[in-house]
Specification:
- With 299 residues, this protein is an alpha+beta fold.
- It has 2 domains: 113 residues, D-amino Acid Aminotransferase, Chain A, domain 1; 156 residues, D-amino Acid Aminotransferase, subunit A, domain 2 (D-amino Acid Aminotransferase, Chain A, domain 2, Alpha-Beta Barrel), CATH 3.20.10.
- 28% of the residues lie in helices and 28% in strands.
- The protein has 8 helices and 16 strands.
- The strands form 2 sheets. Strands 8, 9, 10, 11, 12, 13, 14, 15 and 16 form a 9-stranded mixed beta sheet that branches.
- A hairpin with a 2-residue loop joins strand 4 and strand 5.
- The mean pLDDT is 96.
- Bound molecules: 4'-deoxy-4'-aminopyridoxal-5'-phosphate.
- The site of 4'-deoxy-4'-aminopyridoxal-5'-phosphate (PMP) has 14 residues, from helix 5.
- The site of 4'-deoxy-4'-aminopyridoxal-5'-phosphate has 14 residues, from helix 5.
């Protein structure tokens, strides 16, 4: 498949309050965010022109910035509007939306108190992280890198720097023929994949790791709500890797991954079963509900 480089596309990018042509959205090489990873971002998905859980993503973006010690100079309402405007400017209704905030180039050292905080929002078509074959289930290799202890990194932030070990882990898994990597937590429990949370079914209940050193994903919380609405018991706990052997189903949940069945972790195989299928269907129906449908359902 031919790769279309991200710096050479048609379209528009929202940058610090202005909509500019895609190819003009370039940055100086001496930017603090590039050298010191002083950047936070979001990953959102629009379905039929509605960005699913937009407000929650914007709140997390603002919180992520605060966890890195900076305040994004736009209100939540302005950020929400920017996301919707960039979608419209690009003529997209089903798309991935990527806001990013970063420290600028006024100073380039570890201390960078005077740097300006910038915000951009881009969007592009991105059907699913794992592509068309995902319904067969994806295969996860075990990562060598672990999710860091919350005292060693701002783990609740969707911070660019936390993806360094994600890329290393995913590349290592792909080199071995897997689709993604399962990362353990710093203390050896099941953590998450490199861009999505994990769920297991054990004895008819849904088990998912307590998110105390990695993102408590918006999709994760949505899936927990959908499971409870179906009367499925949800257990959030520290899951030892040995429990991967007794689990009967496994799936990933994330904005880019959506709900994706897992058919293998390490050497253990799984069949996408009834709980995965039910929650996958519920999630696909929910994301495609219009705001009017949601209001009607709540009434
Ligand atoms: N963990 C990581 C490392 C991620 O990158 C993501 C995607 N943002 C998730 C979990 C899932 O988060 P969400 O459901 O909010 O997209």
């Amino acid at each position: 498949m031919a790769l279309i480089p991200f710096d050479d596309r048609d379209g528009f990018i929202w940058w610090d309050g202005k909509m500019i042509p895609w190819r003009d959205a370039t940055l100086h090489v001496l930017t603090h965010g590039l050298h010191y990873a002083s950047a936070v971002f979001e990953g959102e998905r629009a379905y039929n022109g509605n960005i699913f859980k937009l407000e929650a993503h914007t709140e997390r973006l603002i919180t992520s910035g605060r966890l890195l010690g900076f305040e994004i100079p736009f209100t939540a309402a302005q950020i929400n509007a920017a996301c919707n405007e960039v979608l419209a400017a690009n003529g997209l209704i089903d798309a991935y939306v990527r806001p990013l905030a970063w420290r600028g180039s006024e100073q380039l050292a570890v201390s960078a108190q005077m740097t300006k905080i910038h915000l951009m929002v881009a969007c592009w078509p991105w059907p699913n992280l794992f592509g068309a074959d995902r319904m067969k289930g994806v295969r996860l290799g075990m990562a060598e890198w672990r999710r860091p202890h919350p005292q060693t990194a701002p783990t609740a932030s969707k911070a660019a720097g936390l993806y360094m070990i994600g890329t290393l882990s995913k590349h290592a898994a792909e080199a071995e023929g897997f689709d993604d990597a399962l990362m353990l937590t710093w203390d050896g429990f099941v953590g998450e994949a490199t861009g999505a949370n994990i769920f297991l079914t054990i004895d008819g209940k849904l088990h998912t790791p307590t998110p105390d050193c990695f993102l408590d994903g918006i999709t994760r919380r949505t899936v927990i709500g959908l499971a409870k609405a179906r009367g499925i018991e949800v257990v959030e706990r520290h899951i030892p890797p040995a429990d991967l052997e007794i689990a009967t189903e496994a799936f990933l949940a994330g904005t880019a991954a959506e709900v994706t069945p897992v058919r293998q972790i390490g050497t253990r195989q799984y069949q996408p079963g009834p709980i995965t299928e039910a929650l996958l269907g519920d999630y696909e129906a929910l994301v495609r509900m219009t705001p009017a449908d949601v209001a009607k359902r709540a009434a």
